[in-house]
Write a structure and sequence with these properties.
It contains 10 helices and 10 strands. The protein is α/β, with parallel strands linked by helices. It starts with a strand and ends with a helix.
Length: 231
């Protein structure tokens, strides 16, 4: 579905990604793990066309390198950034409306689906998004991206700063995506949620993939966890 081959990415003259290669299959959840500064967020930005990128990013046979971010989004890739970019003066419901893709035939997700996933959003649907808690804003950002009916959703640090109860809701959300055949590239620092929901785990270090395997493989590999993940 998505295949990166020898991807390099740059911020100006700073060379951040060094030959990153991996793939994401249909209906698969892939966790991209690593410490801060390892290149995880830059990887999803490279896929989304938000940084200068060299190499190959193939999406169902279409080359994404060189395309604009909105073109990549229209091709079927959703992106949830870690800074929770909501529209603060619009209501919850209006934010969700803005996520809808025009002309989409029989979208997989409706407002009722979003409110079913996160009942708290239904309670606050007429509330301005700017007064929501951090957890509620994260729920809203996740759901707004889903309203665009992507086939792949890339989620950057969805559990950062959230209470354990909300983290479990995010895990349920990820399982719901998988149940509807949506692929997920999950950027995370927390091993717990990644090991719980992922089909495969990738670990990054110094702008490269240093490990690839199943969650069980990663559980068994104490050396990888100690060198590249544990603080």
């Amino acid at each position: 579905m998505l295949a990166l081959r020898d991807v390099h990415a740059y911020y100006g003259k700073s060379h951040v990604l060094h030959g990153v290669s991996f793939s994401v299959g249909e209906g698969e959840i892939v966790a991209l793990l690593g410490r801060n500064g390892s290149g995880r967020s830059t990887t999803v930005k490279a896929i989304m066309g938000l940084v200068h990128t060299e190499g190959s990013v193939d999406w169902r046979g279409r080359q994404l390198v060189g395309l604009k971010a909105f073109e990549i989004a229209h091709a079927g890739i959703g992106y949830v950034p870690e800074n929770r970019d909501i529209f603060p003066t619009l209501t919850v419901h209006q934010n969700l409306m803005l996520g809808q893709k025009r002309g989409a035939e029989a979208p997989r997700w409706s407002f009722d689906d979003m409110y079913g996933l996160f009942p708290r959003l239904k309670e606050r649907q007429h509330t301005e998004a700017g007064v929501l808690s951090g957890g509620e804003q994260q729920m809203l950002t996740l759901c707004r991206t889903l309203m665009g009916d992507p086939d792949l959703i890339m989620i950057d640090e969805p559990t950062e700063g959230l209470a354990p109860k909300i983290i479990e809701q995010v895990a349920q959300y990820l399982r719901a995506l998988k149940a509807r055949g949506i692929s997920v590239l999950l950027v995370e620092q927390k091993l717990t949620i990644a090991l719980e929901v992922a089909d495969r785990c990738l670990v990054m270090g110094h702008g490269q993939i240093v490990f690839e395997g199943t969650p069980e493989d990663l559980r068994r590999d104490a050396a990888v966890r100690k060198e590249w993940l544990e603080v």
